[in-house]
Amino acid sequence: MPQATPKPVALTVGVLDPSGGTGVLADLKTFAAHDCYGVAAVAAITAQNTREIRRLQPVDKDLLGLQIQTLLEDVEVAGIKLGLFGARAQMDAAAGCLAPHSQLPVVVDPVFRSPAGVDLLSGKDLAAFRQCMFPLARVLTPNAEEAGLLLGIPVSTLEEMKAAAKLLHEQGVRHVVITGGHLDKPADVYYEGQELEVFSGPRFESPSRHGIGCAFSSALLANLVHGKAVRESVVLAKAYVSQAIARGYPLGAGGARLLNHLFRFAEAPSRPAPVEVLQEEPHR
Questions:
Q1: What is the pLDDT of residues 124-139, one digit of tens each?
Q2: Is 20 left (phi over 0), alpha (psi -120 to 50) or beta?
Q3: Which domain holds residue 192?
Q4: 257 phi and psi, to 5 degrees?
């Protein structure tokens, strides 16, 4: 029997969501959908379902560090996605383990607040997030609200998102993607120090935003570990998430419509949702 070709290995570090809609379980499904082998280190455990988070408990920081170090000693990891940590100690532990692996692509997805408005990282730990995560990030993928929290300014409109992307780049982040699913016409802003671009796409009516940011950032990383450039990975990740939303299904007593991370395994390939690229003036 011919031996299977090894898949690139993607590591996700983040929260365990028992519903599978967010966190490392969602990331692993997204990696599988992109022909990657996913491994995970759990930074925090939640008691949550499709409607609410009842408790968030960070794991012991030494255990988190041991999870990451044990994997990196054994598996040839091709890229890393960092999500929710829950507290500063866990961020410090992860950053310490990953600092020697700066050659790997790292996608950092800031998760500070749940869609229901529950704070998942204290305000005093935002500075620690910037200190620990910005040097690691090849790509930072906040939504507009998260970008505003990182910068301490309101970020809501498309113009504010453009300004925020430049400010985050000036603070040391090489590639910034600010997602704008809240806009009347959804659009993501991408900036890497030269040209600012806006990627616009269709709106799919969905009663839930559960896990959209996780799927976008993990899809972005999956494309990076397959050798694609950052800009192309952003476009492909946006198209993937659009299809996962469109093919979502209701789950749970609240009827939340969750993303279908594995739609590619159940359906014939279809053309991705169109992404409109709006060019901006080069950065001066």
A1: 899 999 999 999 999 9
A2: left
A3: 9-282
A4: -95, 105
Half-sphere exposure of 240 (CA within 13 A, CB side): 27
Closest by CA position to 219, among listed 81, 76, 49: 81
Which H/E stretch holds residue 31?
Answer: helix 23-33
- The whole model's pTM is what? 0.90
Nearest to 280 by CA among 174, 165, 179: 165
In the chain, how many domains are there? 1
| 230-246 helix and 212-225 helix, angle to the nearest 10 degrees | 140
Residue 226, in any domain of the structure: yes
User: CA-to-CA distance for 141 and 72, rounded, in angstroms?
Assistant: 24
Looking up tokens 């996605």 gives 81
The dihedral through the CA atoms of 62, 221, 145, 99 has a sign that is: positive
In a domain, 41, yes or no: yes
Q: How far apart are CA 225 and CA 78, in angstroms?
A: 6
pLDDT digits (tens, 9 = 90+) for 34-68: 999 999 999 999 999 988 899 999 999 999 999 99
Separation of alpha carbons 230 and 251, rounded Å: 33
Distance CA 196, CA 154 (A): 20
Q: Is residue 176 within 8 Å of residue 168, measured between CB atoms?
A: yes
**Could you tell me if 108 and 84 are in contact, meaning their C-beta atoms sit under 8 angstroms apart?**
no
What CATH number is given to the structural domain containing 159?
Answer: 3.40.1190.20
| Cβ-Cβ contacts under 8 Å for 178 (sequence gap 6 or more) | 141, 142, 143, 144, 147, 155, 161, 164, 165, 168, 188, 189
> What is the band of 284 on the pLDDT scale with cuts at 50, 70, 90?
very low
Separation between Cα atoms, residue 205 and residue 203, nearest integer Å? 6
Query: How many CA atoms are closer than 13 Å to the CA of 174, on its beta-carbon side?
Result: 13
Query: Who's near 276: CB < 8 A, 6+ residues apart?
Result: 199, 200, 201
